[in-house]
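Hello K.,

You asked for the raw outputs rather than the summary table, so here they are, unedited. I folded two proteins back to back in the same session to keep the settings identical. This is the first:
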Amino acid sequence: MVQSLKKWLAYTLTNTQTRLVLFLTVSVCIIIMGVSATSYYTSKSVLQSELSEPQHQMLQISMNFIDDYIEKADQIAVSVALHSNVYTFLTADNQNSYTNISGIYEFFSTLIGNTSYIDSIYVYDTERGSFVSMPQGYSSSKVTFPDSEWVGIAGEFGDKKMLVRKRSVPPGASGGIRNAGSELTLFRKVLIQGEFKGIVAINLKEEELFARLHPPHRSELERARFIVDLDGDILYSVSGGGFDATLVQDAVSQPGEESLWDFRHNGVSYLVNRLVSPLTGWQYVSFVSQDSLLARSKHVRDVVMSVSAAALLLGVLTVVYIQSVAFRPVRRIQRLFRQSNRDIPNADLLHLERLTTELLSDHAQLSQLIRQTMPEASSKYLFDIYMGNVSSIREMREKWSSYFQDWTDEPLTFVVVSIDRYEAWARRYPSADHSLLKFAIANVTAELFSPEWRTVCADFGKDKLALLLQRKRASERREEACREACRHAAEVVHRMLGFSVSMGVSAAHADAGKLKQAMLEADNALGYRLFRGYESVILFADVSDHEPSAATMKDQWLDDLAGAIEAGDEARSVAIVERMAEELRTAAYYPSDALKLLKSSGERLRRIGLREDAEDWAEEGPFEELHTLSLDDIASLFASKAAELSERYRSLMESKDFVLCLGMVEFMKRHLGEPIGIQEIADAAGVSVSLASQLFKQEMDETIYGYFTKLRMDRAGELLVETEDKISDIALKVGYQHENSFIRVFRKYKNITPGKYREMMKFRSEAANVELRGRDELESKGNRVAP
C-alpha cells in the first residue's frame, strides 16, 4: 500500500500540470492565511493605537496638572527666598529676632492658607544650621528641629536650582499638621551674591497634587497608572483590576525611548504608555491589559480564519477545474508532437517552454546585437573613409551595401559640424564633458533630421562631427530643405547647449563610392566660416565658384609688425594687424590659404613673445585652433597680443628711471645700520631730494622713507630669528639709536612687539622640526607620507 502510494506521488509530481496545480493551491493557501493574519494584526495595531490615544491624553493632562502645581510651588519658593525677612534671617547676625521670625511665620501662614497643595514650608540656613518653618517655628540647630534629616540634599543640587524628592518623615516630625511617613518636598537653592546660603523646602500635599491621576471607571478595562522618579522608585500609583505594582520596575527598565509599546509580565500582555516630564524628569506610565482590550478583536480573528479556510477549499476546487479546461489545447499540442516522433521526455511539456525560450532568446539577442553594432559600424565606416583607411571605391560600395541595407538609392549629402571657438569651448567645459557634449550635439541633430532624413553620425575628433543624410522621400527641393534643416539644427544646439556650431554641406551624390569627395566638399565649405562668422551653414554649391584675386600677402607686413612691436609702438602694431585682416577679407583668399598666413603670423608673434618673456609664452601653445575662429576674432586676438608685446617692449625702453631706483634700493641695503636719511640716498643716486622722491614714488609706488623703514624692519625680523642678540643691539644694527623708537616702529609695521615676534617664530620653528622628525620616522619604516 505504501509503495503504491509512493509510485503514484512520484508519477503525479513529474507532471507539469500537477505541479502547477499544487503550486497554485499552496500559493492561494499562503496568500489567504497571510491576508487573515495581516488583517488581524493590522486591526490589532489600529485598535491599540486608537485606544492608547485616550490613555496618552489622560497621562498628558495629569502630567501637565502636576507640573503646573510644581512650577507654582517653585515660584512660591522663589518668592520665599526673595522675602526681606528671609533675607534678614539668612544674613543677620541675630537670627532669633522676634519681629523677623514673626514676619516670616505670618508670611508662611498666608502662603499655606492661600494654597491648597502646600502642607508646610521650611527655610534652612546651610551655614549656621538653623531653621525657620511653618508650623514648627524657629530652631537654632538641626538637633532641635524634628524634621531635619533632609539637610543632606544640599550636596545633590550641583548646577540645578530646584529638586523634588519623596522622603521619609520620622515620627513626631510633622508638627501635628500631617502624619509621619513619607513626604513629597520641593527644595529650592537660595543664593545670595553668588554664595549658597540656604534651602527653601516646601512640603506638598500628595492627595491634592496627584488628584488628577485617578481615571474615571467607565469601562471594564484592567488598567493602572504609576509615577516613577529619576531613581526608578515609584512615587505614586493608581492600581486597579488586580495589577501588581512591581511590574512597573521591569517596564520602565526597557531600553529605548518609545512612548507606546507591548510588555509581557507573568504571561499577561500589557499595552504601555509612557510620558517623561520635562520639568521633573518623572516618568508617567499607564498599563492596560490587552486581554480585556482585544477581547472582541480575537473573536473577529477567529471568524476571519474560518471564512478564509472555506474560501481556500473553494479556491482549490476552482483551480482544479480551471486547469483541466485551460490545459486542453496544450495537451492537444502534446499529442501532435508525439505523432511527429519528437522526443518528449517523461511525457511532459517542459520541452515546449524550452523551445519557446530558446527561440525568443536567440531572436532578442540577435536584434539587440544588430541595433547596437550597426550604428557603431556605420560611424566607423565614415571615419575610416575620412582618415583614408578605406580608399578604394569598390571597398566603399561593398561596405555600404552591408551597413546601409535599409537605405534607398536617393542621393547622399555629407555634413561636417564644427564647434565654433573650439579653444574657448574646451577651456569652458571640463575635458570629461567634451565627449558627452558632442554626443548631445549628435543626438539633437539626428532627432531634428529624423522626420525627413535618414541619418548616421560620426565623431571626427576635436571640434568636428559628421552627418550622412539621405531623404526618406524624393523631393526637388533637396538642397533648400537641407539648408533649412541645418540652420534649424544649429539654432537648437545654440539654444539648448549654450554654444554655437557651424556646418559645411557637400553637394548631393548618388554613388556611395563618392563619399570621400563629399567629405572634402563639406570640409571646404566649412572653411568659409572664417569669413562668414559663427553659426554659419555653408553649402558647397554656394562657394564652388569662388575664385581668389591675384593679390598675395607680403612677408614685409610680418616684418613691419615685428618692427612695430619691438619699437614699442602699440598703435602701429594694432593698425598693421587690422590692415592684414582687411586685406584677407577684401582679396577673397581661399580659407586654407588665409589660415596658413594667419598661422604664420601667430607663430611670428609667439616667437617674439618667447624672446621677451619665455616663461609666459612657452606655456601658450601655437595657434592650432584658428580654423574654428572667425576672421574678426583672429584679428582681435592678434591685435591684443601685439598690443601686449608692444607695451612690454616700451616698458623696457623706459626703464632707466627704474634702474636709478634700484640703485637707491641697493644703497639702502648696504647702509641699513647707519643713521642716514633721504638726503644721503639722493646724493648717492646723483639727483636732488625732490627728484629722487618723485622717481621712487613713481616707479616703486612707495616713498623712500617708507621703503627704507620696511627694509630695516625686515632685517630686524631676520636678526630676531637668527640670533640671540638683545633687542637694543638689534636696534643699533638697523640704524636706531634708541630701543623705544625701534620697538614703536617695529610694532607699527609688524603689528607685534620684537619680543613677541621672536617668541612666535621660535615656536613655529620648533613645531616644524617636530613634524619633519615625524615624517622621517614614518619614511624610515617604509611608509609614504603625503606632502
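The second followed immediately with the same parameters:
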Amino acid sequence: MKRVPELLAPAGSFESLKAAIKAGADSVYLSGEKFGARRYADNFNHSQLLEAVNYAHLRSTKVYVTVNTLIKESEVADMAEYLLSLYHMGVDAILIQDMGVLKIAREVVPNLDLHASTQMTIHNEDGLNWAKKNGFKRVVLSRELSHNEITLLGDKTNLDLEVFLHGALCYGYSGQCLLSSVIGGRSGNRGICAQPCRKPYQLLKGEKDQYGRLINLERIKLDDEYLLSTRDLSLYTNLKHLVESGIRCLKIEGRMRSPDYVFVVVSIYRKALDQISQGKWKPETEDLEALKLVFNRGFTPGKMFNKSGAQFMGMEKPGHRGLLVGTVLNYSMKKKELQIDLESQIHPGKGDGIYFKPEDNSPIKGMDLNEAPVFKGKKMYLRANFPVKKGSKVYLSRKKDLMDLISNQDTSNFKRSAQTLNFSFHLDENNFPVLKGEVKGEETPGISSQFSGKKAMEKAIKKPLHKNQIKKQLLKTGDKPFVVEIKNMDYSGGLFTPLSELNKLRREVIVDLETKIIESYRPGPEKIKKSRKSLEIFKNSLKNSSKPSFKSSSSRLKGDILPEVKLSAYVDEMDTLKSALESGVKRIYFEAPLLSPPQLVKKCIMKSKRPLNYSRDNMLNMLKEALYLSQSSSVQLVWKWPSITHPGLLKFFKDVLEKTPSELGIMVSHPGTADYIQKKYPDRAIYGSAALNIWNSFSLKKLAPLFSTLTLSGELSKKDLAELCSSLQEDSKDMELVVQGNIESLLSKEGLITVDLLKSLTTKTNLSSAYWALKDKKNHVFPVKIGADCNTVILNSVETCMVDYLPFLIKIGINNFALDARRKSGAYLKNMVTLYQEALSSLSSPDFKHNLKQTKRRIKKISQGGLTSGNFRRGLEK
C-alpha cells in the first residue's frame, strides 16, 4: 500500500473540528482567541481549546495551533504564558511567523514542536536549511512554488514539507503583503486582512514627471474589474503528482468556512487519498462538481502547476461561482417553464438556489426552487416567473443540504478516527469480574487499563448470563471513539450479575483509558515543572531587562547626537545612484535591475517564448561600477536582493556574489539567505530589509547575529516602536527605519501587466516607456512595477513621511533613516535628501517644530499621492 501525505483540515469552530474528524482528516489546525491569522473565525477560548485538543486526540487526530501573527513588545509576556498553556495541553505543534515567537518558544517550551507558517515565506533551500537549524519540524512552503521546485527542495531536506491543497489563494506572498494595512490599518500580519485584493480596480497607464511621479494617467479599458482577485486553489485532479513528490502534508484552507464545507471537502480528498494508497484512484466528475458547489471562485491548480493569467485569476467577480449545470434551451411564456439541457452529474432539487448568466452579459437573474424540477433524460424542466434568454448558462449556487453530496461517509471515516479497543474479560479466584482494555493506535500504542467489579458473580438460580450477553454489554460504547473487539472471554457460564454492574465496569475502563490517552499527548510532571520554571525565569528577565532612560527630546537633540544620525537611500537605477552619491547620504541600497525596460517588456509583458536569461556579466559590471563610484564618494554601497528569490533566481545572485568584492554589502529579506552568506563570506556586511517583519525586541535579538543593521517594520505605531526600543540594551544592533517613500505594499508572483490583459491597447503604444498604476473606488492611485522575475510590485498610493517625527525617533534610539527612491528620479532623491538634512540640522533650534512643518510642506510638493504617517500615528486595528 502506497504511503500518502497527511490530510490537514481547517477548524474555525468546534463544529468544523468535529466535521473534519468525522470526514477523515489526519490532523486539524485551529487558533485560540489571540495570535492566530484568522481573527474573524469563531476560534477557541482556553477551555474550548483544551476540549478540542482532547476531543481530537481521543480520535487519533493531531492538533496544530496557529500562533502565526506578529506580536508587539507589549504582548511578549502574554505570548510566553500562552505557549506554556499550549504545551501543557499537549498540542502536537504550533505554527509561527514571528522570529520573536521562535526565540520565546525556544526559551520557554523547547520541547514543543514548531511548524514554520507560510507567512514565513520560505521558498528556497536556504530557507529550509535555516528552519532545520532553528529546530523546526515542518515548513509550510510558499504557495508560489512550482511542483518541480518543491520536488527538488524535498530531495535536499529531511524536514516535513507541507503545501496548500484546496481553498482561497492570496494574490500576494503571505507574510509580505501590507496592502490591507496601509489602506485601512487592518494588517494581514495580525490576522485581520480586509481582502483589498477582492475589490474592483481600474488599470491606468501614464508617464513620469521630473520627480518620478505618475502623470497623464489614462484608463485602460478592460472586460473585468477585479484585477487582483485570484481563482481558488484545487489540486484534486493533481493528487497523484503530489503523492509522488514526497510532500508530507496536504493542507485545506478554510477556517472561515462552514462545517458543511469542511465536511464535504475533507471527505472527497480523504476518499481520493485512500484510493491512491490502494493504487486504484481516478478523478471522479461528481466529486469535482461537489467541490465546486460548496464554494469556488473558479478553480486553478495555481503556481504549483505554472498557471497564470486567466487560468490563475478570477477577475470577473470575487465571489462564489457555483456549479454549471446546463444551458437554457427554451422558455415557455404560456407554461412559465424553462427547458434546460443538463451538463452536470449533480442536479438541482427543491430548496436549492440557481442563477442564469446570459450570453450577452445582460443582468444575471436568480431564484430559489420552490418546486422540484422535472427530469426527462438529459433535459430539466422547472417553473420560472420570469423569462430567461436562450443560451443562458444555468448555475447551481446553493444546495439545500450539502451532506447529500457525500454518501457512505459515517462508517469508513469513523473507523479511521476511532481507536481499536481490545477487551479481555475473566473472573478472579473469588468470581469478581475483571475487565482489561488495551488501546492500539498509531499515536497511542500500548495504553491499557484494568478494573475489577465491586460484586462477585453468583451462581444463577434461573437465568445465567451467557458469553454473548456479556459481549453485548461490553460492545455498547455509545459515542465513545473506540471500535471494540473482544480479544479474550474467559467465562465458563452458569453465573449471574446485574447487567448494570457490567456496564459500570465497562465505563470505568473506558474513562480511565480516555484519561490515559489524553495524558499520553501531554508532557510529564517533570517536564511541566521544568517549563514552569523556564517561564518564571523568562518573565523575570523581562522585568530585569536594562531599559535606557532616554533624555528629554530637547537634550537628545544636541550636537552630541546629530553626528550619529545617518541617512541612507534605496535606488534601483544607476542614474539615481549617481544622484544619491551627490546628495550626501551615507549608505545606498542598490536594487540593481535584472533587465532593461525593453527586455522587461519582452520577457514579462509580451511573454516571449524565447528564453531571456539574466546576464551575470552585466550585473557584475553594474555592481563594480556602482561600488567604484560609491567608494570614491566615501559612501557605503549595499546590493539589495529582491524580497523573493526562488531557487533559480537565488542561484543567479549567488553566482554573481561569488565574483563581487568583499566591500560590497548585501541586503536580504530572509534569515536563511543571511545565514548562507555569513557562513560562506564571513567578512561581508549583511543588512536586513523591512520584509523581515521585525515587530519586537525578541525578533531583533534573534536576527541580530546574522546582520549588521536591521530595518524595523513600517507597520509599528509610535507606541509600539517606543516599547520595542526601551526593551533593548544601549549597545543593541543598529536599527533603521524607512521614513520616506511609497512603500512596497504587495508582492505577487503573478504578472499583472501582460499582453493578454492589454489586448485593447493600440500597437502604437510604447510599452517600454509606459508606467502603470491601479485606481480603487476611492480614487487612490497605487503605482505598479514589474519586479524581479516578472513579479508584480504594488506600492502604497501615498508616501510615508516621518520627517516631523524625527525628534521622537532619535529620542527612543533610532539613528538610521532610509529614503526609498526606487522608481523615482535623481531629482526627487536629491531634493528629498536635502530636505531631510535640513530637518536634522534644525532639530537643535528652538524653532525646530515650526521648521519641520515647513519642511513637510516642501516634501509634499514633490511626493507621489500625498503624505501619510500611516500606522505610526494611528496604529493598527487591534
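Residues 418-520 form one domain.

Happy to rerun anything if the numbers look odd on your end.

Regards,
P.
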